[in-house]
């Protein structure tokens, strides 16, 4: 005999947990299942173990989606302040790192514990881990689920299975599969917020630079610009400025990177020429850049001479060549290392206020499985909380 519940949620990640809390607080009976052995695995891993749980600057412009307006309603009704109030209620200490990004002082574990406690406090939410879905159908207005822990029936079914990123943390394509089964279109998926890889000459040239980082570069692709850190890796480039632009990058597109975007390099070189004409150009660059990078640049350009040997005009024309790189990534590190998945359940067949399917009543999609992807910096969790809350208010 199937166990009946009002709300059945698949996926106990950020969005599924928030949906369960919100529905439970409305006294809806909820069963929340996950195939992993524990809940909220990505939350635990997030923000380097400190969970960048929201961003105080959240707005629709921080999200990629085929419909950029879709996020507005849910984000307006569950704001960063709502989540901050929850964090404060649980006395979890946090700090702002930069640009509105809020992190736990201690550990991401506190966020998972908080969400679990909130589920328990409702008295209406049952969580089952290591529970895999075997089949699912809707018949006579009721959803029927066969799982590895028995059969369930429910009035509302919420798909909160996340994206394809980091399969070792439990990611699967189940949400897209269920979406298609119920007639939904799925926007093409690809890895986002992901390190970029290079082959051939650029990689050979950067070989000695793996591990070298720069505090601020500007990455540019068409209209998008991000100022943040950059890291050379064994296979290419990473760091926040690269992760951010990677979500906009498509294979075959070159990428512009400006080193020292906050420095007038020609002015610096002219100043140093006046002060120390005997200083080599390479050493003048080492004052602003890591030594190994200055060395690398000196191998690309004739930088061995002393500043005094260059005319002012030569220094002025060399500076932008040193600062502005155009690079052609060969690919990305893929879902294995991507923080998020771009694409997903097409928003045109979902209600933006409740996340309910416009094709199948009682069916909801929330969180990363939907074609909504945030920038780096706490925006993805805010979408998970907001969309989970939106569905939780209606299921
Ligand atoms: P999420 O992936 O959290 O949860 C989906 C759940 O569904 C999982 O528990 C999974 O086990 C379960 N599931 C999947 N397939 C299933 C199946 N077949 N059967 C049953 N259950 C299934 N964002 C941010 O805002 N700030 C940050 O600091 C970070 N940091 C970060 C670090 C790393 C390493 C990664 C990979 C990602 C981030 N992110 C982030 C992104 C953020 O983690 C992500 O956007 C949210 O977790 C999405 O929440 P969801 O609930 O939609 O999916």
Record the SSE blueprint:
Elements (H helix, E strand, L loop, with lengths): L2 E8 L3 H12 L4 E4 L7 H5 L6 E4 L7 E2 L7 H6 L2 H10 L4 E3 L4 E4 L4 H14 L2 E4 L4 E7 L2 E6 L2 E10 L14 H8 L4 E7 L3 E2 L2 H7 L6 E9 L2 E9 L3 E3 L1 H7 L8 E5 L5 H11 L5 H6 L4 H10 L11 H12 E4 L3 E2 L7 E6 L17 E3 L7 E2 L4 H14 L3
Parallel strand pairs: 1-2, 1-10, 2-7, 10-20
Antiparallel strand pairs: 3-6, 4-21, 5-6, 8-9, 9-10, 11-19, 12-15, 12-18, 13-14, 13-16, 14-15, 16-17
The structure holds dihydroflavine-adenine dinucleotide (FDA).
Main attributes of the structure:
Elongation Factor Tu (Ef-tu), domain 3; about 400 residues; binds dihydroflavine-adenine dinucleotide; 21 strands; 7-stranded antiparallel sheet; 7-stranded mixed sheet; alpha+beta; elongated; FAD/NAD(P)-binding domain; 13 helices
3D structure, described in words:
- The structure is a single chain.
- Helix content is 31%, strand content 26%.
- It has helices at residues 14-25, 41-45, 72-77, 80-89, 109-122, 174-181, 200-206, 240-246, 265-275, 281-286, 291-300, 312-323, 379-392, and strands at 3-10, 30-33, 52-55, 63-64, 94-96, 101-104, 125-128, 133-139, 142-147, 150-159, 186-192, 196-197, 213-221, 224-232, 236-238, 255-259, 324-327, 331-332, 340-345, 363-365, 373-374.
- It folds into two domains: 3-190 and 341-392, FAD/NAD(P)-binding domain; 196-332, Elongation Factor Tu (Ef-tu), domain 3, CATH 2.40.30.
- Strands 1, 2, 7, 8, 9, 10 and 20 form a seven-stranded mixed β-sheet that branches.
- With 395 residues, the chain is α+β, with helices and mostly antiparallel strands.
- It is built from 13 helices and 21 strands.
- A hairpin with a 4-residue loop joins strand 5 (94-96) and strand 6.
- The mean pLDDT is 96.
- Bound molecules: dihydroflavine-adenine dinucleotide (FDA).
- This is NAD(P)/FAD-dependent oxidoreductase.
- Keywords: Oxidoreductase.
- Its EC number is 1.14.13.-.
- It is an enzyme of class 1 (oxidoreductase).
């Amino acid at each position: 005999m199937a166990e009946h519940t009002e709300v059945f949620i698949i996926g106990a990640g950020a969005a599924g947990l928030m949906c369960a809390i919100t529905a439970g607080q409305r006294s809806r009976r909820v069963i929340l299942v996950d195939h992993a052995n524990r809940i909220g695995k990505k939350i635990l891993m997030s923000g380097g173990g400190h969970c960048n749980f929201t961003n105080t600057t959240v707005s629709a412009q921080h999200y990629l989606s085929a419909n950029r307006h879709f996020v507005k309603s849910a984000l307006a009704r569950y704001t960063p302040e709502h989540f901050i109030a929850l964090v404060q209620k649980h006395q979890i200490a946090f700090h702002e790192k930069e640009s509105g990004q809020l992190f736990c002082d201690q550990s991401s574990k506190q966020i998972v514990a908080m969400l679990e406690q909130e589920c328990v406090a409702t008295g209406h939410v049952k969580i089952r881990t290591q529970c895999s879905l075997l089949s699912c159908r809707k018949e006579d207005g009721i959803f029927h689920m066969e799982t590895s822990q028995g059969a369930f029936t429910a009035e509302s079914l919420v798909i909160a299975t996340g994206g394809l990123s980091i399969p070792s943390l439990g990611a699967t394509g189940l949400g897209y599969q269920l979406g298609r089964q119920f007639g939904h279109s799925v926007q093409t998926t690809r890895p986002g917020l992901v390190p970029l890889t290079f082959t051939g000459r650029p990689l050979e040239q950067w070989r000695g630079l793996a591990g070298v980082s720069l505090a601020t570069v500007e990455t540019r692709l068409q209209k998008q610009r991000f100022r943040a850190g950059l890291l050379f890796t064994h296979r290419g480039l990473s760091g926040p400025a690269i992760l951010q632009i990677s979500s906009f990058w498509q294979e075959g597109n070159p990428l512009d990177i400006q080193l020292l975007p906050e420095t007038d390099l020609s002015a610096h070189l002219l100043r140093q020429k006046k002060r120390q004409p005997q200083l080599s150009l390479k050493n003048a660059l080492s004052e602003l850049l890591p030594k190994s990078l200055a060395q690398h640049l000196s191998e690309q350009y004739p930088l061995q001479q002393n500043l005094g040997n260059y005319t002012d005009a030569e220094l002025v024309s060399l500076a932008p060549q040193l600062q502005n790189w155009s690079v052609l990534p060969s690919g990305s590190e893929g879902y294995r290392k991507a923080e998020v998945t771009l694409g997903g359940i097409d928003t045109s067949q979902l209600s933006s206020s409740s996340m309910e399917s416009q094709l199948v009543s009682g069916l909801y999609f929330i969180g990363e499985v939907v074609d909504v992807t945030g920038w780096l910096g706490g925006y993805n969790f805010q979408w998970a909380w907001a969309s989970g809350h939106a569905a939780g208010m209606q299921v």
